[in-house]
Each structure stands twice: as C-alpha cells, then as structure tokens.
C-alpha cells in the first residue's frame, strides 16, 4: 500500500496516491480528471481553479486536515490581487499535495462541462470543442542549435498539450516570426483537432497570453433564410444570433427554380454559389458586430442545409439533384478550411458540414436527427421538419428510418388565395362556432380576438391582410369540425351548411372568414385553398405512413414538429387535418429550429460529429418516389383526416361531423392529380 | 507440403504456391512482388506485363512446362491487336497459374524501377512517386441505397488500391459528377500519398481510362536563376529542362540586397514573393510547352533553394535572416498544395520543399546532401557548393557536418576589375609559361588557344571581353606557379618578375593578360583582383577547415565541387590557390547542379524525402560567425595556398616558387579586414 497522500477528485470520483509536493493539476492530468489549463501550469490562465474540502469524509474514507494542501503562494496572491479568486478556491497548478485531500472541480474549471438545454426531453450538450488554446514559452533561437522558430514553437506546444504531432496552417508562416518576437517568445496558439483525431493544427496565434474566449458559428443555411448563432466555445453560450435572406432568392424562390436556373444559364450555379457565400460573409460581419466580437476569434463553423443548398454552397452544380436517381456529389460530412468555401472570416477558421442523409434528405435533416436524437429515444418518435419539403424521421433506439416528402409551399401560405408569409396583419389563429358557423380569429401583432372589444382599433395599423401557414391549418380544421367542410374536402353551400358565409365561388363554394372593410378585401377560404392543403398534408402524412409501414407499426408514441412552422402549429388542428398520425395531443411537441440546434451541438461537441456521422450511415433511407404504397397512402390521406386510418385518439377529443357535400358533379380532392414538387 | 503450383518471380526471387487459376498479378501482389497495375487487373492498362520462362531451372529446382500458364486469352489478343504485345510477354492479370512457373518482371513493369545516374560514384534513383494512377469502375447511384458519387468512387478506389482511407481535394468536388458520367462510371484517379504515409488524396480525375504519364517538376530556385526539370514520374526521364532569370533580380542582385529591399520598403518582401511566384508560373508554362506536356498532368513539384529564397517563396519576410541569430521561420521540410504557394499549375499539384539545414545552409544544401550522400560515403568527403555563399558538407557514414561560408561574388567574376559572367568572349582557361611569363588563354565560344592559328578570326565576333569565374581562378593560380604572384598575393614588379607584363598600377602592380586591340581595352589582373579572390577562397577554405577541426582531421579523402561554377573549375588551379584542402587531384570531382539533382531525387522517390529529413536532423551544424578559430583559419588561408597548412600532395605535382614581393610598405592580403557578406 502506498504511503503517499490520497487525492480524491469530485464530482468524477477519480482518486490516486501522489507524492507530497505534486501539484493538483498534475495529479488531475495523471488521473484523467477533466481540469482545464491553457497555460500548462504557469499560474497565468487561472483555468485550473479547484475547491479543496476539509474535514471528515466517511464516504471516501479519508480525513482531510487543514494543511492537506501547500500554503497559498505568491502566484495565487498575485492572481487574487489582480483578478480576485473566489473564496475557498485555489489554483490547481500552484497548490500541491501535502496530505490526503478531497478536491472539487467546479463546472467552470471543466473543459467538458455541460450546456443545459431548455426542453425537458432533450439531452444537455457536453462541451468538447475542436479548438483549444495553449499558452507556451518558446525557446529562443540559438546559432549553435539552428532550428526554425516554428519547430521550437511546435516543440513547446507538444510538451504543453501532450500531442505527438502538431501542424500549422500555411497562412501563419508569415506572421509567425513577428508574433513570437512581439510576445517576447511567449505566445498563445489556437489548436484545431477535428473529431477524427487527425494531427492538430495551429490555426491562430497571438503574442503573449491570450485568454480567449474563442467563438464558433452554427449556421442553418436555408433556401429562404440564412440563420447563424455565434457561440462561445468555452461556455456554449449563444452570444448573438443573426439572420438574413438567402441572396439566392433572386435566382428563384424555391429550390427547384434554382436548380432550373443553373440548368438554363451557363455558370448559373456558380453565380448562386457566389451569392450564398457573399451572404454568409455578410452574416459573419453582422453577427460579430452585433456581439462585439473580433471576427479573428471566430475559429470554427458548422453548417446544415438541404442537399441543393449543400451543393451550391460547395460550388457543385445541383443538376443531378433535379432528376432521378437524385445522386449527391458527396454525402459524407466534410471538414474543410473555411477559406476553401470562399469564406473571408479568420483565415484559420474551420468549416464542418454535417452529412447528407440522401438526395432529398439533407444535412439539415441530419441536424434535426442530432438535436432530437430519435436513435436514443425509448419510445417511437416521429420527427417532422416541415418546410416546402418535409424531412421525416421515424425511430427509436432500435433504429431510425428517414424520408423526404414533397409538401410544396402551401404550408407557408403560398398557393393559398389569401395566403401570406407570417407577418403582422396575417390571421394566425381561428375558431369557428359549430352551431353558428361564425368565426373569430387573431392576427399576428395583436393579442385580441376579432370578437373582443378594441380589436378594430388594435389592428388599424397592420390591417387584416391574409392568412399565414398556421392560420390556414386552423381555419380548415375548424371548418371541418364545424361541418362546413366534409371529409373529402368539399365546402358546403349556404343551404347545406346553413351559413351565409358559404357562397358559390365559380364551380365550388368558398367560406368568408372576414368580410373586409373600406380599405381591404374580404378574406375567404376557397375550395382550391383546401385542395392545396390537402395535397401538402397528404404528402407529409403518406411519407410518415410509409416509414411506419417499413417499421411495421400503425401508430407512433410521439410526434416532434421541427422548423419554424412547427413551432406555431396547433397539434389538434394539424391532426384534424390528418397532417400527422393519430397520437395523444400532449405527445405532439415542437422542437423549434432543430436543424440549427443540431448545428450548434456539432459546433460545441466534436464527439457529436462522430455520432451523427455514425447515425446517418445507419439510418434506413426510403425514397418515396419509388415506393408503390406511397400513392395509396397519398390518396387515403387526401381525406380530412383520412379515408383509411381511423384516428381513434383524435376522435376521443374532437367530434368530426359526418357531413358530405358531394353532389355527384363536384370535384373531390381525393382524385386530385399527384404533384411531385421538390424544393 | 503444398500441392499447389510453385510460382517464382525474378529478379526478386520471391516465391510461393498458388492454386491453379490464380492470376499472376494476384500472386505477385500477395508475395509483395513489385508488379505495376493501374486498372486493378481489368486487362486495360497493360502495366502488369510479365515474361514467363519455360524449361529446366536447376537453380530454382523447377521444371516449367509449356502449359504452365493459361492460354493466351481474348483480352490479351485484343490488347495485342490494338497496341502490340512484345513477343514472349503476357498480361499478368490475365495469365493464370496452371503449373510451376518462373516469371520475370521486366523493368518497365516494376513501379519501383531504377533510374540510372551517369556518374559512377553516385547511387541510382529508385522510382517511388507520391502520385499513382488508379482506374476504377464506380457503382452507379441507386435511389434505394442513397450515397454520394464521391463515396462510391472512394469505395471503388479503396478496393482497387488497398488503401484504408482516401480523401479528395476540394477543387474536385465540382467536376466530380460530370467526369463520372462522361466516363460512363469508369474513371482514372491520381492519388497522392506523401512520404509520411498520410491519408492518400485524389488530386486529379479523368473520365475513362487515362494512361498517363504523369509529370513532376524539380526546381532549383536560385537567387539568380530558376532552373526546372520536368520528369516523367513513371520512368524518371527528364523530358524537358528550362531556366529563367529570377525576376527578383530587379530588387537586388544578391540576397543581402534583397533582404535590405524588404527592410527598406514596406511590403517589399511581398513584392518579391509575387515576383518569384510569377517566375515559377512562367517556368511551368515554358517547360510544359517545350515538352508538349499538358500542364494538368504535372502533379508533383519539389523545390530547393537557399534560406532567403525559401522564405520569400513562402511569403515570409526574410528580415530575421539578415541578422544574428539568423533565425529561420521554419526549417523543416514542407508538403503543401502548390496553390497555397500561389502556383497556378494543375490545382491538385503538390509542392514539397526540402528542409533547411540552418539559417545560412538552406534546402539547396539539403539537395546537395541528398544527391551526394556524404552520409553514405565510406571515405571522408568534403562537398562544396560554390556560389556567392558556399555551403560546405563534410562527412562519411559516421556523421556529417555542415556550415556556410560567405565567399561573396568574386568567384562569379564580380569584384574583379575585368570580371564578367560566363558568356561568349570571356576568358575561361589560362596557361602562363613559368620561364617567359607569357600567357595563353581560351575564351568561351572558341576551341582555340590564343596562340593558335586562326584564333583572332575565331573570336572576332565575340571579342575578348573579360574574365569569367573559372578564368580568374586559373590566371591567378598560373601567376602563382609562374612566380608572378607571391604566397602573400602580391604581384611582382617588372624588375622582380623579369616580365614587362607586370606594371605599376597605382600603389601595386598589375599583370597584363591581354594587350587589347583597336576595339577593346587590355585585360589585366590587378592586385585588387587577387585580394578579392583571396578573401573569397579564404572564406571557403576556412569553412572547410573548421569542419575538419570539428571532425578532428587534417585531411579529407575526396572533394566534390557542386554548383555550376564547380563544373568548370580546374581542380589543380583551385588547389594552388588553396581554395580546397590538399587532396589527390583525381579525388576532386564535379557534381554539377547537385542541389537540382537532389530536388529530382526527392521528386522521383518519396522515400528520399524521409532520408533527407532524417539526415538534416542529424547533421551537425556549425555557425562560422561564432567560431573562434574561423578567424585564425581565415588569416592562414589568405596566403596562396596557405600560410599554415603545407599542401604536400599538391606540391608533389606542382612547384610553387618561393618568391616574395613584399617590399615592406606593401599591403599584403593576409591582414585584410574580414568581411562578412552573405548572399
């Protein structure tokens, strides 16, 4: 048995015997305890703060005396005088073992600390950045032992970090000598080591001691919007978020029109590549300014996007994605120098692109999978990222399936007669009285319902301008509950419904949601609007249903709605329409921008990059275009909610009148031609 | 004992038993026999040609029957019809083992064949390029098994080459899909794997089967001249050589004036970086055109250069090289993408820079070390690369020392009153009759001696314009042998020498080498010229002498003169001047542009890159500037040949008159101030 003092670390519980005089940092490193240090034990960085505990510890079987650590020393005193050391704390590199001791490593001193995520059902993020800082003192040049300044820097960094090999970015060869001399042969290097543990590289260098923090950018590169989060890589904190319109919009609103633009215009794809890269460079400028962060301190970046954006961002013509077999140029994750992507941020910045799952299921879906982790779910989860193309994941810890389904832009208010983007003035919530068939509604930008006092005054500024995506879901679902629309999607006439709000509008009926006023036209829901939503939701549902077939189930335990649209949608109304499978309403949750969250996770924790790459390889991919049952599911799903699936759970909470307005000559949606739209 | 047939390969002698039906290529691969194949055994590339031998082989203990191999097949027939197969040859991938057989692998079918070097004393080069071609058939995309085209290409390449991991250059992501489709899913990839065996990378891609050859560029980036050799990487053959003036000359003739330019002009170093890179890009264009080679097929490049050129080429300010302690920014070898060096050759091209030995001993000296291999020498070799700065290596297989010595530009004809660069009209050879003191000489561009009939007519075009570097060595040495110059370097007067060619020229005497004519001034050798040469040769000799001290020897077994100047110098005359240590004259050899040869070796054989990196780390570096004995050696070496070292071997073949022209008031060179000139 060793007679050396016993050192016990909490919360890890790691323990070992160390000779008297061993610094706590040294003991921690030897035991593999997660204790931070940038300066390698020189008493400069103060990252290795620890809290010794004294007294009796029956649990650990030790008694810690007051003199278990060395006395407070001059380095600690100097640090305390300059910066202030929290009471009870010591610097792990200065305090040495004198007797048995229990050492608590506070969260701030852990490299791999946890970032708490707000939603209860998701896991916290463990910090594990690809970038670390290391402060070193470099041997000065000596004519008698000639070696390059770089070689001596690398020698010092190897000793400090324990890495066996270290490389340097070529762009640093030029500033290397001035930085070393400005720092008096003391420098701080940012080392990047990717998740595949390749040789670490020096990607940035500062004279003297540079405390950080360093930042990383998580980007959701959407067809419409580019959204970025700037994160502190040491704390995980989001210090700024910024978004801008994707400048590619000038080449086409949706993805297929951009693919067409590239096909019709020689070099068109490169124009779009340049546009999106310019947009990203602008985003970096904006977000750095917003957060008052030096762009030179942004040294990592993670990107998620759909396959077309993925290819255009990489400078690859998306031509092949516009036609079967929808072949991706590359599907695996990519680790590149940001400069290779034309990004003009700090020259050492790295860019990581999550893998694409399939030709229609992109890195954005991989981001959703990383954030929502269906592969770690105990119950069977259906995760739907609703956009103009819906990406659908179904799975639990036994396996995950994925597909994409061409919902088209109806859910975003396009193809709807009174549709509009979610903006002030747009109707977003609707209720219809089943007895009177009279509606009431709320518009974005106003807390009042339309039948409440002061509503007219409150909306005077914005007006009532149209119906946004979530509003159209609600109004049609409410029409279905109120018996204004039948299961086939037909709106009844005034006579059939007993409501003057129903009127003949061409060959079919429409419903007046708002009568209009002196300034604005009435807002109606046409049978065409219902047809458009039927198409979109049938596509979504039949994609989900196909995955359920493959999995051999007829129901799911829970549904996660991802994407901005998912955040606003009412679970009940979505289910009345049969957008999502039958399921207890409280089991339908919203994940917000899960793709962006996935990017943030991959940014903060490089192990998550290995996880998602492994998961994506294991996901079973279903191509809906070639699945024979897709068409059958689609036809069934055209009904409201469905002509084949009974939706028993829904029917326990909502009564759906058994009306039928088909007069024989009408045009039900169930025979509507199937569109194939991607984008 | 196996009953399978025995297959014996020559010249390797490798042997093994293989089941009937095994292709010879497969047998070769399993035994590690060096048999080339680009197409992986598809009968397309014909690189795996072998010659079976039939009959009795008592040496191997086998009898090979006529049916030891399978019959000539359709693939071989097709190849023979199209291209013609040498009689007796078979395709190793088609011919299968049927019985015991002896297989000769001809040199053309070996990847690692030898390139024979002309000089007897040096080793041949074993071919082992960083770049290899691989032809593969790629699985087509399948909607049911979505994966990127790249991932399927890599899968095929892994199977064909046996590499566990393969990466791709980012620039190929864009052309990847069109190339795969143009080739009908058959492509040829160029894979680069450096000498450190890092993950191989696809650096170029061609649709269908691309036969090669691929080329590489070996560049000696001199202060004055940039010289390049374009080599076929599969045969080692130099297909074209080209040289151009270093465009940096406009910023300063010698290196120190360029360092000064960078110090005096903000951004001056970057101007020079741009100039040299432009020069290199021009060289590539010239040499590719000259050889009628597609620049896209030049995929490797190796560079040697002195430290100042090294830094300027890399875009590093050479400021630190201009002052003690002469710190290199980086000394180790560098493997980079050529594009990182601003080179606009094929985007996948790799660039390898040999390591620098010390602040004054550059990658060019490393090239000399690689070419001349003093570390492998049985006897003690002194290798001198003579330029404006002499790099000196001394060693044998027990160890190598290196230093640099500031000879200045006198050996190149600068600082000499009648000096000029080696060009037509320059005096290059001189003889002086010791009795009459009358000279005769030859000029560049004319085979006749000046006392031969027809000389005047022959040189009428060029004239007699001056003395080049080797000419000045000869004339001074001849003057010393003829008793016109004494050991201290003083020219005697007409009275002292008995020759009217000696005349008082200011405070010292000069010697008339040529009287001039109507068109041209006389050509004389002044005492100042002799002083300049004394300085230069003393620097060179004392550097060598210092290494000999360190090694504890007073003589060397042989001397190798590298560099263009070394190729023209007369060993006897150099030794009379005491430029090089005493040694049998036949042991003084010229290595030509050994630095450039070293670049070519590193280009053709990646193992040589490991060798030189290892050697450079082991070389003992001596900084002459801080060696106390350098001054003493320098003073001794100022005499002709030397005031301390006796040169007994030289004196056996040459008589040096014991004359002295010091009249007491003269200024001997031995007290001349020591200059420190670098460049």
TrEMBL record, chains A, B:
Database matches in Pfam families: Fer2, RACo_C_ter, RACo_linker, Raco_middle
Annotated InterPro entries: 2Fe-2S_ferredoxin-like_sf, 2Fe-2S_ferredoxin-type, Beta-grasp_dom_sf, Corrinoid_activation_enz, Raco-like_middle, Raco-like_middle_sf, RACo_C, RACo_linker
TM annotation in the entry: none
Residue intervals of the 2Fe-2S ferredoxin-type domain: 5-109
PROSITE patterns xref list: 2FE2S_FER_2
GO MF annotation, one: iron-sulfur cluster binding
Domain of life of the organism encoding this protein: Bacteria
Annotated protein name in UniProt: Na(+)-translocating NADH-quinone reductase subunit F
């Amino acid at each position: 048995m060793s007679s050396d003092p016993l050192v016990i670390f909490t919360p890890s519980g790691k323990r070992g015997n160390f000779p008297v005089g061993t610094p706590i940092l040294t003991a921690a490193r030897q035991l593999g305890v997660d204790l931070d240090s940038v300066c390698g034990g020189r008493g400069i960085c103060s990252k290795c703060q620890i809290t010794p505990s004294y007294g009796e510890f029956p649990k650990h079987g030790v008694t810690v005396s007051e003199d278990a650590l060395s006395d407070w020393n001059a380095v600690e005193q100097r640090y305390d005088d300059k910066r202030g050391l929290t009471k009870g704390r010591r610097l792990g590199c200065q305090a040495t073992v004198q007797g048995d001791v229990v050492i608590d490593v506070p969260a701030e001193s852990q490299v791999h600390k946890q970032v708490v995520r707000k939603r209860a059902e998701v896991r916290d993020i463990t910090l594990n950045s690809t970038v670390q800082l290391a402060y070193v003192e470099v041997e000065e040049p000596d004519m008698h032992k000639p070696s390059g300044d770089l070689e001596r820097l690398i020698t010092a960094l190897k000793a400090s970090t324990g890495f066996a090999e270290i490389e340097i970015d070529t762009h640093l060869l030029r500033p290397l000598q001035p930085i070393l001399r400005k720092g008096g042969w003391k420098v701080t290097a940012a080392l990047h080591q990717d998740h595949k543990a390749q040789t670490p590289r020096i990607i940035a260098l500062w004279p003297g001691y540079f405390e950080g923090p360093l930042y990383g950018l998580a980007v959701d590169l959407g067809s419409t919007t580019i959204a970025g989060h700037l994160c502190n890589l040491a704390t995980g904190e989001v210090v700024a978020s910024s978004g801008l319109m994707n400048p590619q919009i000038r080449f086409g609103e949706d993805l297929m029109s951009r693919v067409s633009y590239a096909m019709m215009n020689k070099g068109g794809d490169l124009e779009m590549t340049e546009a999106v890269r310019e947009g990203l460079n602008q985003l970096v400028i904006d977000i750095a300014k917003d957060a008052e962060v030096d762009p030179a301190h942004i040294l990592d970046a993670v990107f998620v996007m759909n396959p077309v954006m993925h290819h255009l961002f990489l400078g690859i013509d998306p031509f092949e994605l516009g036609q079967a077999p929808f072949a991706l140029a590359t599907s695996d994750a990519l680790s590149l120098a940001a400069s290779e992507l034309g990004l003009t941020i700090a020259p050492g910045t790295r860019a990581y692109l999550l893998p694409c799952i399939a030709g229609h299921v992109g890195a954005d879906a991989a981001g959703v999978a990383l954030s929502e982790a269906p592969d770690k779910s105990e119950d069977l989860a259906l995760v739907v990222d609703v956009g103009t193309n819906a990406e659908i994941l179904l799975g639990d810890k036994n396996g995950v399936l994925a597909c994409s389904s061409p919902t088209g832009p109806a859910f975003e208010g396009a193809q709807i007669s009174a549709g509009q983007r979610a903006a002030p003035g747009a109707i977003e919530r609707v209720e219809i009285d089943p007895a009177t068939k009279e509606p009431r509604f709320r518009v974005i930008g106003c807390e009042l319902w339309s039948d409440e006092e002061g509503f007219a005054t409150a909306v005077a500024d914005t007006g009532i301008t149209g119906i946004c995506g979530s509003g159209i879901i609600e109004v049609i679902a409410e029409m279905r509950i109120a018996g204004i629309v039948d299961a086939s999607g037909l709106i009844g006439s005034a006579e059939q419904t007993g409501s003057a709000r129903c009127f003949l509008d061409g060959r079919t009926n429409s419903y007046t949601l708002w009568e209009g006023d002196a300034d604005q036209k009435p807002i109606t829901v046409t049978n065409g609007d219902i047809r458009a939503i039927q198409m979109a939701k049938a596509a979504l549902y039949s994609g989900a249903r196909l995955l359920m077939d493959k999995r051999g189930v007829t129901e799911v335990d829970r549904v996660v709605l991802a994407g901005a649209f998912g955040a606003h949608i009412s679970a009940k109304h979505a289910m009345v329409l049969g957008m999502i499978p039958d399921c207890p309403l409280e089991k339908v949750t919203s994940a917000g921008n899960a793709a962006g969250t996935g990017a943030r996770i991959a940014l903060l924790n490089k192990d998550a990059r290995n996880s998602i790459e492994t998961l994506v390889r294991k996901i079973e991919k279903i191509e809906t275009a070639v699945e024979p049952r897709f068409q059958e599911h689609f036809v069934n799903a055209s009904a409201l909610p469905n002509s084949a699936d009974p939706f028993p759970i829904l029917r326990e909470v909502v009564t759906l009148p058994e009306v039928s307005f088909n007069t024989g000559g009408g045009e039900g949606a169930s025979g509507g031609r199937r569109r194939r739209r991607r984008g």
